[in-house]
Write a structure and sequence with these properties.
Length: 171
Amino acid sequence: MAQTEQELVVEQDKHWMQVAMAQAAKAEAAGEVPVGAVLVKDGRQIALGYNLSISQHDPCAHAEILCLRAAGQATENYRLIGATLYVTLEPCAMCAGAMVHSRIARVVFGAADAKTGAAGSVVNLLQHPAFNHQVEVTSGVLAQECADQLSQFFKRRRQEKKALKSAPKLG
């Protein structure tokens, strides 16, 4: 039985989200908030990125921004027309703005961000009617897995902080 075009897109979205989740795991291994991204065009990976804000002391070093920068270098063009960005967490306003400026066709994200999400949770900057470019949004791809990756990171972080507070002071 042949797959429908929609079923094929869903499978591809899941595959690329798993690639983004592997990038998020690299962020976590580096002590960063585990968010990862991959940019794809015509079925090919163009660039990867993961959060580096903490280690680079850079509030702009989000996975999406680093991925878009790498893609611009790889394609020698800041316009990424026809590309799809997969990211494990709903983009913030800064990242959404960069996506609009880069002219990507589509963003696919996993976990929603009820505090700073700019792809529909708090605000939808990707499809704002006043902008000269709108980005197609697909949300909730491997949402639970992406949310779990983040939740486990923050749970472990809280436990580490608690352990430090309760550790006996020497000296």
